[in-house]
Design goal:
The protein is mainly beta. Helix content is about 5%, strand content about 35%. The protein is built from two helices and 21 strands. It is globular. Bound molecules: zinc ion (ZN). Zinc ion binds next to loops.
């Protein structure tokens, strides 16, 4: 099996302080364990949370029946809360707080405004962002895949603009349901967040997870939503963005085929495309990404959220080719 890497967003350089660690073209993946034990619990006013870069924190704001809207602000990003009674928690509103893979480590304030018909109050939480140890990948690629010519650069900029526009409006209601689905049961490369040095130049970090799977493998939507945009872009190849509401998007790139169109409603587990190697990819794989209120988080963190389906299906055993590894990419 060919190494399966894709190389998104090559232009902006990483700050030098992020260039930690050694160049390991890794073998393992450290599971996101934030929710393995107990759910992080809000302490009411002045409650505290913490989570690593790229993780998701479930924030519960206790409210009474009169609360109508609950909205938070964290590091300039807006977080829309939704009423939730299923969790083993006091009654209240819940928000998914994504910690971006480049959020500054340290303690930051999360301000949550709780509105009723008559009044509004602000609840403050402190959120500690813990530094994640991301890998550094040194990649050697054909020059024209790293240093774009003028025409390709213009194309890439237009494509970025198209994505930005499509994702600018979030669905005002929560479309997803408990029970997140792994889009492909394949070999995870574990390179979410990895710092990329291409042909010796530091580039943007890898903002999703790559999952190696044979060409044509079915790719499922992780949850219910609306197809906001289907693309065939220079780096992403054929792919799509699914809007799950309240600022939560999942994306699926390098497909050989996209099986849905813009505006389609999709259900969790619905086949939306097939694994391919389109765009800048070194072999067939799925690039799975998640944006949560603008934060780039590890998509696998979704599977660890305390929103489990009612009838969890037995996941097929991942097919792992023992001979496969991520060595020097062969585009
Ligand atoms: Zn990728």
């Amino acid at each position: 099996m060919k190494p399966a890497l894709d190389l998104q967003h090559p232009r902006r350089a990483m700050p030098a302080r992020c260039l930690l660690g050694i160049a390991i073209l890794l073998a393992g993946y450290l599971p996101v364990d934030l929710f393995a034990g107990s759910l992080p619990t809000g302490q009411g006013v002045h409650g505290r949370y913490s989570g690593k870069q790229g993780h998701i924190i479930v924030v519960t704001v206790p409210t009474d029946d009169s609360a109508t809207t609950v909205q938070g602000t964290f590091l300039g990003r807006s977080i829309r809360f939704f009423p939730e009674t299923r969790l083993d928690e006091p009654k209240g509103f819940v928000g998914l707080l994504g910690i971006d893979l480049q959020d500054e480590p340290g303690t930051h304030e999360l301000n949550v405004e709780v509105k009723t018909r008559e009044r509004s109050r602000t609840v403050r939480y402190s959120v500690t962002v813990v530094k994640e140890k991301f890998h550094i990948e040194h990649l050697t690629l054909p020059k024209d895949k790293v240093d774009l010519d003028e025409k390709t650069l213009a194309r890439w900029k237009a494509e970025q603009e198209q994505v930005k526009e499509a994702l600018a409006t979030e669905s005002p209601s929560k479309l997803w349901q408990p029970g997140f689905v792994e889009p492909v049961n394949g070999k995870r490369t574990g390179i979410f967040g990895s710092v990329r040095v291409m042909n010796g130049q530091p580039r943007n970090p890898h903002n999703g997870e790559d999952v190696g799977a044979p060409l044509g493998t079915a790719v499922a939507a992780t949850n219910d939503g609306v197809v906001r945009l289907t693309v065939d872009h220079f780096f992403s190849g054929k792919g799509l963005f699914v809007d799950h509401g309240l600022g939560f998007y999942s994306m699926y790139f390098h497909l050989s085929e996209v099986l849905v169109k813009d505006g389609d409603q999709v259900k969790a587990g619905q086949v939306i495309g097939k694994v391919g190697a389109t765009g800048r990819a070194t072999g067939p794989h799925l690039h799975w990404g998640v944006k949560l209120n603008g934060a780039r988080v590890n998509p696998y963190a979704l599977l660890d959220l305390p929103f489990k389906g009612e009838t969890p299906s037995a996941a097929p055993v991942p097919v792992v080719d023992p001979a496969s590894s991520i060595g020097a990419p062969v585009p």
